[in-house]
Design a protein that fits this description.
single chain; four-stranded mixed β-sheet; 4 strands
Length: 93
Amino acid sequence: MGIHLMQPRFPLGKIFATPGAIALDVDLSQYLRRHHCGDWGEALCDEDRRTNDEALEDGFRLLSCYRTPAGDRLYIITEHDRSMTTILLPSEY
């Protein structure tokens, strides 16, 4: 059995986290790494996953949605021009 290493698939630009995301007191870097490598999260619907896969080619915005161990949802959004990535709660969107 081989080891599968996730590789970054796009630039993140400047990285920001909102006060709500920081207040969750979880390691945000693990979710950012997943997003950066094209793992859009377990809380994203299939249609949004397909949209993200197309956006990698077409240069549109990328959205990931993850569930924390406490059950909170966490969004990560990379802008269409890849200039910035924001980690936020759905209520801060």
